[in-house]
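Budget justification note: compute hours in this period were largely spent on complex prediction jobs such as the one shown. Inputs:
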Amino acid sequence: MADYDYDLFVIGAGSGGVRAARVSAAYGARVAVAEEHRVGGTCVIRGCVPKKLLVYGSHFAEDLQDAKQFGWDVPACSFDWPRLRDSVLAEVTRLEGIYSNTLENHKVEIIKESASVTGPNSVKLASGREITAGTILIATGAWPARPDCPGAEHGITSNEAFHLETMPKRVVIAGGGYIANEFAGIFHGFGAHVTIVNRSDKILRGYDESIRDRLLQISMTKGIEFRFNAPFKSVEKNADGSLTVHTGGDAAPLECDVLMFATGRNPKTDGLGLAEAGVELDKAGAVVVDADNRSSVPSIYAVGDVTNRVQLTPVAIREGQAFADTVFGNRPHRIDYEMIPSAVFSHPPMAGVGLTEAQARTKLGTVKVYTSDFRAMKNVLAGRNERALYKMIVEEDTDRVVGLHMIGPDAPEILQAAAVAVKAGLTKQAWDDTVALHPSMAEELVLLK
Ligand SMILES: Cc1cc2nc3c(=O)[nH]c(=O)nc-3n(C[C@H](O)[C@H](O)[C@H](O)COP(=O)(O)OP(=O)(O)OC[C@H]3O[C@@H](n4cnc5c(N)ncnc54)[C@H](O)[C@@H]3O)c2cc1C
Ligand SMILES: NC(=O)c1ccc[n+]([C@@H]2O[C@H](COP(=O)([O-])OP(=O)(O)OC[C@H]3O[C@@H](n4cnc5c(N)ncnc54)[C@H](O)[C@@H]3O)[C@@H](O)[C@H]2O)c1
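Corresponding output:
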């Protein structure tokens, strides 16, 4: 290893790359990480963190309305987008500093340049410098996909949404997944009229059907519009800067100020030199890896979104940790991909872990389904007609809880704790044996009949 410039060269300082670099260095490896944009990657710079802060910001719209019933006289309020935008961006910069410090404190060299692979043990920086390393880790993440239609260049993606100069009045969002539904709630809260245009007739594929239906119904009640089975045809830019969006069928064109594509994220391997170096990529361009995150070239590994397994930050972090433990820490272990909890930070948020009802019926045959369909106490007093739905899926033969799905205030917070019990394979009886904590929304989980 000593013949190489570094023991480990990481490309990409995002969720997976930062963890892998820091832990490998702590094990004594000589580590450098190349980052072409900002340390922290998607989650910190233009994903989970700024998104969640905008979700908080937009929720004030409803909280301020509801305050009246709780005795607060709130004078007419207005929303100042540049003020929120800039405080969110300042927080992002603060976090970027923390991530950079952590790497530097672990003696990881940060190289603020784009890098590509030139061989099993060599990389080239944008500046032309060649570097050798015993092991190379690809942690370059993913990049927003745009439909291939005339005028698509007029649309933005989530990358740009955090930097808008003004808050648009009319927003069209293409896609029906995580980003579409989260940003629909964000823009709607800030007063924009939002239309989601989806190519299929379902939102949030993979989540339990009843929970998705509830989000759809609540979103429509709030005034978010949905256009289903509507592929994108073309986009025109008008003289006043607005956009006209043409979708399939006879549907009337949509006029908007901002069009945002939330149509998935592709592994970021373009121009990385991987195929030329003999690294196998799949049809989507993802690095094909084994259970130890190793590619078809034994000295090259990959973690996170670039492998297109589960595009979530905690998964990328765990993969980075497992890589470092296995390759540099002499503590080999693998990730358990079963029962990964996830959430959609919509208004209201939804969250789930384990099998959906449909998956459980297909996989296990007989299952019992318990639901609680209720109005949160706070919503009742506020006069907000918005119902939460919790759904527990139980394997009939064993009484084991195999899935838990919910939509309602604080659902992600509740589900993270509940996921421990689901992952541990506890029976429904064990949940019933736990005394309720009253008054809470989460108590519904131990009172399901
Ligand atoms: C809007 C949005 C919201 C999200 N919200 C959530 C959420 O709430 N919860 C959740 O779990 N996940 C969320 N995600 C997903 C999450 O951000 C990703 O799964 C996670 O960041 C993946 O980590 P990664 O290390 O694989 O890649 P990234 O974090 O994307 O890091 C890759 C890094 O590599 C750099 N890079 C790329 N190519 C090169 C190169 N050639 N040379 C040098 N550097 C390079 C990039 O600049 C980037 O910094 C969200 C994503 C988006 C877009
Ligand atoms: N809360 C979270 O954890 C969170 C939040 C945001 C993003 N993410 C991660 O980032 C990933 C990317 O988010 P996303 O919302 O872009 O992807 P997604 O996979 O959730 O949704 C993509 C949507 O775009 C549609 N689509 C795909 N190609 C299309 C095309 N050519 N034309 C029209 N529609 C098309 C799909 O039908 C789907 O509805 C997610 O898969 C998720 O893993 C997670």
